[in-house]
Structure prediction request, 620 residues.
Amino acid sequence: MDWHQLWTIVSLPDNIPIVGMLFIIPFFTWYALRQARANDRLAERLENDPDMAKTHHRKVQPFQKGWVREVAVWPYLLRMEFLAAIIVTIILMVWSITLDAPLEEPANPSLTMNPSKAPWYFLGLQEMLVYFDPWIAGVVMPTLIIIGLIVIPYIDANPLGNGYYTYKQRRFAIWAFIFGFIILWCSMIVIGTLIRGPGWMWFWPGMTWDHNRLIFEINRDLHEIVGITSQPWIGIFGGLVVGGFMVVAGYACHRIITATEFSRKILGRMSLLQYAIMQGLLIIMLALPVKMAARLLFRIKYVWVTPWFNV
Amino acid sequence: MAENNPSEVKDKPAAPAGGNGNGARSLLGVTIDPDEIKKKAQIDLEGLKQPTKTEVYKSIFRVKHDQTARSRTLGVLSNVFLHLHPAKVNRDAVRYNFTWGMGGISFYLFWVLTWTGVLLMFYYHPTKVQAFRDILYLEHDVPFGKLLRNMHRWAAHAMVLTVQLHMFRVFLTGSYKKPRQFNWSVGVILLVLTLLLSFTGYLLPDDQLGFWAVTVGTNMARATPMLGHEGPFGPELGMTPFNDVRFALLGGSIVDANALLRAYIWHCIAIPGFAAIFMIVHFWRVRKDGGISGPAPIMLEKEIKPVRR
Prediction:
C-alpha cells in the first residue's frame, strides 16, 4: 500500500473539489432523501386519512392557524443571503491563503504531460474516451447530456412532487437522475482523478504510479471473438448487435417504467413523442455502463466496426 | 445677487445700526450674526444625529427604513439591487434545508469571479511571450497577486460544484415541473456556460497543465461527426486539419498564440456576456413563474387531474 502516492493525488490543490465531492455529494443526497422520507410519511398519513387531508397544511414544517404564510424578504431572507455571502467569502479567503493555485512549467508542445488530464469536471468525458471513440465520447455524448437535461421537464409526465422533496411519488425519476448524476457522472470523475495514472492506466488507490508499467492486454473487437473476418459481414453483425442492445435495453426500461400501477398511470399520461424521447435517452445512457463492462471485464474494444465509424 | 436685490443691500447695513444688541456685524456688505450661525450649526449637528432624516439620505434611499411592514416592502421593491426579490416569501423557503442556498451562492461566486477576474486582467497579456511571465509576476511581485489568482481559481472550482448541487436540488424538489420547465432549460445552458468559462480559463496561464488539458479537450473536436477531419463522414465532406471545427476553436491547427487569444476573449468577454444574459432571464423567470417553488403543500396521488391536450 503506497500511502504516499495516494496522498500525492489527494493533496494536489486542483483535486480539492473532487475530495470535497466525495463528502459533499453523499451528504446532500442523504440530506435530501431524509426530507423526502419525512414528506412521504406525511403523504401516507394524508392518503389514509381524508379528513386530515382536507384540513392539514400539508407540510412537515410546523404551521398553526393565525401564523402568516409569508414573511418579509427584509430582513428574513436578506439576512440569510448576507450571512451566506460572508461565510462563502471567509471560506474562499482561507482556502486561497492556505492553498496555492497550481502552476506548472511553461507550455511546451514537445514535452507531453503523462498523464495529461482535462480539468476535473471534464474527467468523466475523458474517462469515457476509454470506452468510446472521441466522436461519441467527446461530441455526441456531451451533446446528448445537454439535450437530455434540457428536455427533462418536458418528458416528465408525473405531476406529483412539484416543489417538495419526495421519493415515493417520483421513484423512477429520482433513480434515473441519481444513476446519471452520481453513478455515472460523479463516479467517472472520481475514477478519472483517483484511479487513472500514467498512460491512463488503471491504478487502484494505493498503487504506485509506475511510468514503466506495461499491461499485456490485447483488446479485441466483438466480431473477432465470433470469428467474422470480412467486411460487409462485420458491419452487418455489429449493426445487429447494437440494434439488439437497443431492443433489449428498451424492453428492460419499459419493464421498469411499467413496474407499478402508479408508473403505468404516469405512462398513460405521456404522449408517444415523450415516450420515444425518454426511451432513446435512457437506452443511450445505459449504453455507457454496458460498454464499460464489456471493456473492463471482457477487453472488447469495438462492437460495431464499419469503414466509416466504429462503436 | 446684489443687482437682483438692491433693497436688501441697502437694508442690511441698517440692521446693526438698529442696535438690537446681538453683536451682528457687517463685513463687505454681508451681515454676520454669530447667534444665527450658531443656531444653524446646531440644526446641522442635530441632523447628523439622525442621518436618515437628511435630504441627501432621503434622496438616495427614498423610503423610510423603519420597522413597519410597508417600509420593509418598499425597501426591497424600490431598490435596484434588491428588486429581483419579491416583497415576501414563503415562510418555509427561508430555511436552509430546502434550497441549500446553492443558486444564490453560485451567483455570488460569479460576482467574486467577475471582480477578481477584472483585477487579474490588469496584469495579464494574452500573448505567448508575456502570458506565463505575467503569472509569475502576479505570484511574486504584485501585492496580493497570489491571493487574487488563488481566489479566482478556487472560486471557479467552487462555482462548478455549487452549480451542479443547485441542479441536483432543483431536480430532487421537482422544481422544474410546470410552470418552471423553461427555466430549468435556461439553467442547463447556464451550467454549460459555467463549464465553458472554467475550461477557457484553464489555458490562460499558458503552462503545461492548461496547455495539455486544452490539447486533450480540443482534440476531441477533431472527431466531430461531419465537422471534424477525423470524425465520421468528416473527410468525405472535405474536412482537413485546416478548415474543420477544431481549427475554428483554436484559430489554427495547434494550440498556440491564436488559441490563447481566442480563449482569452471567450473567457473574459463573450461567455460572461452570454452568461449574464441567460442569468437575467433565469432570475426574471424565477419571479415570473411564481417565485421559489416551495416548500409546497404535498399533493396526493388521488388528486392528480387528467392531462389536458
Notes: Residues 131 and 288 of chain A are 8 Å apart (CA to CA). Chain A touches chain B through 104 residues (CB under 8 Å). The first strand of chain A starts at residue 70 and ends at 72.
